[in-house]
């Protein structure tokens, strides 16, 4: 019996040794895996911090460059998508032809009795024609200051807003506001006075004015002139004060009006097919 026991002891020890060795190997592998993960996190965090430091150091030079007259949105952001530009061409009309075309357009639109429709026939629009060069320059300065604030400070570098409009414009400069001989400032009424009482307008005044602007843009194109529909952004109240408009009017849009330059370029946009925005029931 003793001999049998002595013969089984080595087998028992070998089995225990193999199990212990396996446990040691597994433990080493687990420790190695955990160490690898910890080191990976450390190095990734370190690289991220390095990138943030580089970006932080680069922000100020980019903003300084953004304040220049010739600065471009493309200089501030990477991976900018830009549309191909094509030469803008519109047939040139002489003054007599323009007057004849404008009269014909008016007669056609007048056949619907009210030209541009408005809710409740409120006709809440007001068109202010600016011809004075100094006032045009002041309006341009207000628009550009607010536009620059949008591009650099308020929206921030790399924002989706900047990326979205980069295909339409490369700078916040608006030279056409002063280059055009006429600048139409479109306003709409926000309240009116009835028997010395202030009554707020709820007749869809913005929609009515927008329809009028759409018809006006069509008329401008029809007579051979050009315009660029421009938003006043947050400068509307300052433009209104500059033009001494009453408190019941709000600046909605700006339309510089004149002939397009011979070398004018525009984005080569493709319009949606009519099937994509119409449904027949």
TrEMBL record:
Pfam families reported in the protein's UniProt record: Nitroreductase
Name of the molecule in the record: Nitroreductase family protein
Gene Ontology biological process: tyrosine metabolic process
Keyword tRNA-binding recorded: no
A cellular component annotation (GO) from this entry: plasma membrane
Transmembrane segments: 20-44
Entry keyword annotation includes Signal: no
Residue ranges of every copy of the Nitroreductase domain listed in the record: 114-259
GO molecular function: iodotyrosine deiodinase activity
Keywords: Flavoprotein, FMN, Membrane, Oxidoreductase, Transmembrane, Transmembrane helix
Annotated PANTHER family: IODOTYROSINE DEIODINASE 1 (PTHR23026:SF90), NADPH NITROREDUCTASE (PTHR23026)
Family note: Belongs to the nitroreductase family.
Species this chain originates from: Ancylostoma ceylanicum
């Amino acid at each position: 019996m003793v001999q049998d026991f002595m013969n089984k002891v080595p087998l028992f020890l070998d089995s225990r040794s193999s199990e212990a060795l396996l446990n040691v190997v597994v433990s080493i592998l687990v420790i190695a895996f955990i160490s690898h993960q910890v080191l990976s996190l450390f190095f990734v965090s370190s690289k991220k911090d390095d990138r943030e430091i580089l970006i932080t150091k680069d922000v100020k030079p980019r903003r300084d460059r953004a304040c220049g007259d010739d600065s471009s949105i493309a200089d501030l952001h990477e991976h900018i998508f830009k549309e191909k530009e094509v030469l803008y061409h519109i047939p040139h009309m002489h003054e007599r032809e323009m007057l004849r075309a404008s009269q014909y357009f008016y007669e056609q639109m007048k056949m619907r009795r009210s030209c541009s429709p408005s809710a409740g026939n409120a006709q809440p629009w007001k068109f202010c024609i600016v011809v004075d060069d100094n006032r045009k320059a002041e309006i341009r300065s207000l628009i550009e200051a607010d536009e620059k604030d949008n591009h650099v400070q308020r929206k921030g570098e790399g924002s989706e807003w900047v990326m979205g409009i980069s295909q339409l414009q490369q700078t916040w400069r608006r030279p056409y506001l002063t280059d055009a001989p006429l600048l139409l400032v479109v306003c709409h009424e926000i309240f009116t006075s009835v028997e010395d009482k202030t009554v707020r307008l709820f007749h869809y005044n913005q929609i009515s004015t927008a329809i009028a602007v759409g018809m006006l843009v069509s008329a401008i194109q029809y007579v051979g002139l050009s315009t660029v529909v421009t938003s006043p952004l947050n400068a509307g109240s300052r433009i209104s004060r500059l033009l001494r408009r009453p408190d019941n009017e709000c600046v909605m849009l700006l339309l510089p009006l004149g002939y397009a330059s011979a070398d004018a370029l525009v984005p080569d946009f493709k319009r949606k097919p009519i099937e994509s925005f119409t449904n027949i029931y």
